[in-house]
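Notes from hallway chat w/ T.B., transcribed later so I don't forget. T.B. wanted the structure written out for a chain they're using in a teaching module, and asked if we could keep both sequence and structure tokens in one place. Agreed to drop them here.
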Amino acid sequence: MTDPRIPRFVTGFIGLPLLLAACAAQQPIPKYVAPQTGPTARLLMRGTMDPGDRYGVFLFDNASECKGMRIAAAGGPQRDPAAITIPATGISTVDIFVSKADKTQCRVRWSFSPRPGGSYVVTPRSTPGGCAGLILDASDVDKMKPEATLLRRDTPGNACVPLASSKSIAQLAAQGGANGTAAARPPAAAASGAQLPGATVTEDDLKALTGP
């Protein structure tokens, strides 16, 4: 109940930021727009999803700082999206996000340097209690291998490790952690530190590209 001693315009002013914040939190993540000029590379998605799991692939306007997140593709069990083109003029950061059937979520985030004219495959995969994802160099489709320039950008509690502190795929392989795995968490925990544009990733974001 509103305290009658507080003027109405004051209570309205106090409630306005909360209302604006609620509206902002419900905004969908913008869709990725492929470059129309300049060198590009091809990015394909090949997921291995358990029943009821979905995945999304996100790119960033600012790849170094993981800012300006855009949804580029989404898929599910036996359903992979069409290939997309990405700039091949510097670093690209790819967020592999998995929404699991039990409503938990997980993500794996990589940066790499695509070559002009190159082809790459993103491999989202359901795992017991989490997910995994790598980016493969598909220049030779008969000998696909993890992209040599990969840098793992996420760690538990930090969704965007600075580039200078990110571990390379070679360093991770030496430590036995080059399989790109992540543990599933409740939605709020999975989004922590993700630097999303005013929104967490939701089922609606994925359904916008995959359908019901």
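Follow-up for T.B.: Residues 8-25 form the longest helix (18 residues). Might be a good example for the class.
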